[in-house]
Amino acid sequence: MFEVRNLSKVYNSGVINKASLKAVDDVTFSVDRGETVGIIGESGCGKTSLAKMVLKLLKISSGSMYLNGEDVSSIRGEKLKSYRRKVQIIFQNPESSINPHMKIYDCIAEVLRINKLASRKSEDEKALIYQLISMVGLQQEHLNRYSWELSGGQIQRVALSRVLALKPELLVADEPTSMLDVSVQAQVLTLLRSMQREQGFAMLFISHDLDVVRVMCDRVIVMFMGKIVESGTVDQVFSHPCHNYTKSLLEEYECLR
Ligand SMILES: Nc1ncnc2c1ncn2[C@@H]1O[C@H](COP(=O)(O)OP(=O)(O)OP(=O)(O)O)[C@@H](O)[C@H]1O
Ligand SMILES: [Mg+2]
Fold first, then answer.
1. HSE-up of 61 (CA within 13 Å, CB side)?
2. Residue 243 predicted with pLDDT over 90
């Protein structure tokens, strides 16, 4: 369904002493409808850079990406607009995606209006918003609040409702629950799973938390210094890691348990 081939990202920095850093190095993988692929690896190994390229927030240095067989590496205009609707992200820090000056109702309505899913201030719009918030386990009273009047878990639910409104084909979740406390984490993850079952989107799930990856993902990719060093089903990788880096990652994880 979604595929990247030989994707790389080189950051160039420095004005006088030019330096370049290969943050993502020749990465190839695919993810199918209804499937969740986990991306793990130490801080700075290139996970977010990869996610930003998938979302087309960051220009790719080389390689290609395909959505439903179509090459989306260098799409523009209307095609890019439609791609942006099909591929959505949930951020680590949900506050960053919600405007603090807007009531929650308007935050959700904004997405519906921009994407012409319902006409402004119509009964349809209202009904859709009520439906969306009940899907993510919020109540109507929350709609009248601002984001700073909600808890972290509630804000992540609002962010999720905005994404679900668009019925994405691919959802990228970059550490979606690392800012939440453990009990809320579990609720948001369960919600994400049940939404995926309902809507059938493919998911790329980036996380530091191997326990969470184990529960959420079907397959997992291990990155090390920009490269994929290992990939396979969660069971394969967690019970029989091949690469030394994966072994040390898992050993560290066993120590913490
Ligand atoms: N805009 C940028 N310009 C230059 N270098 C960057 C830029 N963004 C990221 N980098 C560098 O690229 C490398 C990969 O960063 P990235 O954010 O993709 O890592 P990550 O795996 O998501 O890390 P974390 O787990 O800490 O979120 C890092 O060395 C980072 O410093
Ligand atoms: Mg990151």
1. 15
2. no
